[in-house]
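Why does residue order matter? Because the sequence determines the fold. Keep that principle in mind as you read this record.
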Amino acid sequence: MSDVSLEFHMRKLGEKGRLSELEELVHQTSIRELTKTLSSKLPRSDCINFWNYLLLACNTGSRESCEKRFACVCHFLDGLRTVELSYKQTFDLIARLSQDLVTFSPSELVWIVDHCVDGLRLGDAKCVGWKDLLPETLAVLAATPQFLVNGVSTNGPQYRNNIINSLSTMRWPATILTPIADMFRALHLSNAEILTVLNKFAGALQELSPMELPALCFQLFSMCNSASKLIIPLLALEKYFHRNYYKRLFSDMCSNSTDLDSIDSFSDKELREAEETILHHLNYCTMYKLTEQHMVIMLRNFLCMPDVILTPFMLSAIISMTSVNRDPDSAPITRSLLLSFLRNVIKNNENERKLADYSVWCRDAMHRRQVDLQQVFSVLLDQNKEGKDVITPGLTHLAFVLLKSHQAPKMHILAITFLTKFIRKRYQFGQGMIKKIANWMVVYQDQNQFSECLTMLSVADTYTVSECLKAIQSVMEHMLWIPGEQAMRMMNFILPLLKLSNRVRDALIKVLCKAMGSSDLQKRRMAIYGFCMILKQLNNSNSLRQTSSSATSFCTQHSISGYSMMTQSTLGSRSNPQRNFDMLTLEIIGILRNCLQQQFDIRCTLYENLQRAVELNAKLVPHILQVIDWHFRSFFETSPAEDQVANDVDSVFRIRYDLMVSSNDDMHMSIQLKDNLGQLVQFVSQCLAIFERSPYGYDASEMQRLLTLSVQRLVANRLNLEDTAPPATHLKCALVQQQLHFIEGIISHILLSSKPTNEIITNVLPLFKQHDKLRKDLQTLAGASKKSRKRAKPNDSTQNNTTVGNLTVNGVQVKSMCISTTENIWDLCILDRFLHLLHDDIVPFAAPEKTTQLRSHEPLVRYVLEITALKVEHIRLEPDYKQMTYSKRTLKQLTDITKTIYERCIRRLPDLWRDFDMQTAELAAKVFLECLRTAHCTYEKRFKEFVKGFDMATLNNKEEAIYIVQNVIEEFMKEDSNGDLIKDAPQLPIHLLESLEILYDHVDFGDRAAAESYTWLLNFCRSYELPNADFGLVHRLLFTQRQKTHSGSFFDGIARQLGQVLGYLNDKDQSNMDSSELSLKSLSTITAGSCLQHLYSAVHKQLEDVDYFIMKANNLNYKCQLVSDSDQVYWRGNLDALDRSICTQIIYISRTLMALTNVCIPMGSMMDGLLKLLIQHYTCMKNLAKHYLSWCTTDDSIGIVKSTKFELLLREVGQQLPANFYDLINYIEANTLDDESKQQPKKRQLKAERAKVLRETRLIPKVIMVIEDFNKQVIILSKKCKKLSRLTDHLHLGTIRDFDIQSGDLRAAIERSLSESYDIDEDSNQAEDQVEDQGTDVDEAEDDEEEIVAQKPQTSRRRRAENDADESQPKRKRVLKEKETVQKKSAINKKTVAHPPPKQVEDDAESSEEDDEENEEPVEEEMPTNLRRTTRNAPSEAKTKKPTIARRVGLQRSNKK
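Structure:
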């Protein structure tokens, strides 16, 4: 029968359902004909019908039909390798065959499996039918109980596992990785098998092209059923994209040029498209399988590895799995766990950047550089700009999470920078984001970052922000209901919008008009600030008012009705080119005009803000002078200018102080401050100085005349001032203060109007002398008022109430009768001119011969420097709404002041204190320090620019400021050999050292100045003895620069030298002192206390850094378990290096603590600081032991413990440090009550002494507890490492400190200590030991209200010191004597508590049983000599306990796990 007829008959019989005839037809047909027909039908699309009928006909169960079927199947599978079929055809044919696999024999199924494995090895991407057939075949075989494979009997599960292992270990062709992944996904692998397969794919996908990745990743993501498996392909993909795309991209961003001739394997477009598709698959595959909580639980193992998480791909992958990214509208960002995790990782990254700048050890321990988040965000922004919005919602919400971080300025800066760039590139998202930030600004009024963010957005993209009119209007409406200062802070983001949007400007004016009519003082201050802010931005182009029908009528001529009709018609005429500006300015100033009749605070706020507006917008001056003129004239009584005679001698001139200060009662107890004439004069002088440059628009001659008259009358002493003779009254003090301000304002006028052609500058000195006399008189009045209050009788309530209790200023009660004499109205501009006048040789506004007398007047120079320091300090104390951080004008003024002080004072400071005045030199150093502090706090980002502004070393090839200050300090110490200079100016070197500290903070660790500064500090400490404790600051600088530039052992030498100064507990360290040890002359009994505190701070910071790096090592260990085999060597090498570095650093710290625990440290806060360091140290070592426990799980990893110096660490400190601590306990107990023992019996206070005992000993049980916890972890670790080493041999097994405190016996002991002999019987205070479970809370002893004091088990005799000198010395001799007494009596009263051998200790450490109760009589056990410990001596026979409450304050060592 031909092939066509056979196929025709089979199809005809099959379609009619005549299976018996079909089976008979196939039975009569030979295998050769069947296979030939199958070969001819295989390439055709209808082959599936023939294949279905053939399998139905052969499924009769007879042997012959099974052989024919198997022969056809074999021919079919071989044909799939030679004939190219579509995937659908192949899948249909394989799916039909899979339905009958259960009827195949095991041997036939084994052949099919082998055939599929052979097809996989061939690696033909066109023939991948095996991926669908192999899983089904293995599933059938796995259910078979027993069968033969190559003559060997096996079962189904065993055969399946063998095939899976074979597939996992074979080399996979790169062309068929996706079909292989699809096959493994269908095999239903176990968790261990999935991990093996994923690790295999992680290494294999590195060779694929970008177009092959998305399909493979979909299969891998579908295979992952947990977050711990999903991270494996994500790490592999991160490596792939970093190597092929981001590495080159970041390199181009950091370099100035791009290599355009390079030929890359793949194009950037292909890589970006592949990444976007992969992120889409990741989101789809994990949407319903993994929650954010699952991901966070896994990702927290990478919390301390920002270099792994904060890469563009990994960051995008994590963001794509957040619920906020999937549904931005319904998911609140505050509940996104993944975004909170990313915020913590970013915080750790910023901390690592700080650590790298602070410590050379941290830089060496971090093998990879910190992530530059600005670069990462820039890359993600550029990708979003191209319209690829897979992670856009999540990325913006991540910025919101960073912005909402509480008290995290660095997070806020990152968020603001990102949002600014994002809105500029994706402006269509701007309105929604701005609306959200504006709502947060109103809700979270105590946080400044939201208003700062809106301000930066307004500056960067003014058009986009101005379109959000509804959000802006909503914020303006809330300004009327929130505190005034908060409203002023919110108002700053509206300032840039006023130049563009008239609607925003008019809406703001409407709100400010409502606030101006409020009864709340803060609201009116806010309105003044807002109106002046508008005036600063006004010009003719942006002052056009609305003309639409909906325009409101709040900007009308009614508000300026005080102006003449001629003025209105002139300014409002259309021929005026500045018509719009003039009209709107007059309207606003007309509103502000009413403030001149309001309270004192309102007027001062008006002067301050108008002065700033005039400085930034000079066109306002004519209009403001027109308003302020009548108000200014009202304070002076004088005849008109035309009536005055030529010499002006007999003219009438008087100042109306009643318009500034008044009293409402005869006793002058209610003072009303109405105005500040001095501040007004200074404001008018500023306006006149600006007006003089272009004098048009107004006649200011009368104001000039009044100021000139004021100068003449004050210089001639013809202006009557307040009588400052006692008695002092409140009104008199207030008037004197107003006169001081008036003189200060006149001096400001002279400085602003002075020119080389006039001689007005010569009037400054006589004016200052009057000012100085008034200040001294005011101080005298203040002293007289204090004396009068002291003389007042305590029982005379009427007089007390009259003098102090009812004193009010503007309705507010005050305590002081006289206002402070340090108040001054000069601003930075006036002070800058004053400093130039007093210190520069040539000034542009005065003749040189006129300034000589001013410079030689020491009180004037000192006063100007003092006020400058106060004003510069006030800059960093300004409220947030003034936004001093962004004020370029203030930064320039600060830089100019610093430059003058540095060039004219600091650089020649030795000449200043030799030739002029020591106090002036001290004040100059203080001003320099305050300038540096203000720049450091307020302009931290621009500090280097600030330094370049005043230090011209780079331009003039001179020494930098750091070297200049160092030389000045050294010269001061050389000249102060006799201590004369330090008496006259005790703070001068302190100010210079603090200045050096700020300059050092901004020196990069790679600069030459960093290393040289440490060398200078070390030589300084070795060369000079410090005269007082304040100089201990130099030790803090030394320790900081040491850690910044050097690593290795250093602080242990400092601790040993402290032992030489304070004394040793034991003399062994004194005998071990090396001749090459540090010998710092600066370290003496005077500076030992401050040096010890600085040493504590340095060691505490080192322990914090080590603890962080231990967590980093844990994260790195977790990553080593996930990376592919090819990367294992690299990451394990990094982990080993990090562990060695950690152990080395802990060894250095331990040596320092061993030296400190042998020093006679004074009791109190210094001893508490040492005990806290010990707690932190042992906690850190316990975490390190747990780290080794987490990865010493295999035989290969056990040997790494020894190679990472952990055993060396135990050998170094395992026994010596705890031994020193137990000796320190004796020292603490011996010195606890010595101070009280000097007092008379009647003066003793038992409660205070009890509190002191508890306070001094409260940390001892905690230290013992952390030591025991560390020993427990080492014992557990030793069980895993016992083949290589016995770690417990290096441990200190502890001392039992279990005793009771009995209040009755304690009180009796204290009374006996007051006897003449001061001898205490050794055995009278001992009580029976009482054992307590380990769960007892040791800290309960602190809260107990019973009289509890730690009692020593064996108390030595104590005698009174023969003299005060003996008593002032440390108690180390007493400790030694006690030890001798204990040794002598140990043969009589000895209670030996035997410790179990190491094996038993290890077993007990892991047991979970309860500790057995202690027997009444101890039993001695034999134990090895090297492990035998002698406990504290206890009485051989226990004394009967009294019925009193006892509390344990010691801690008994327990072997409970």
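Confidence is low (pLDDT under 50) at residues 547-570, 795-804, 1316-1457.
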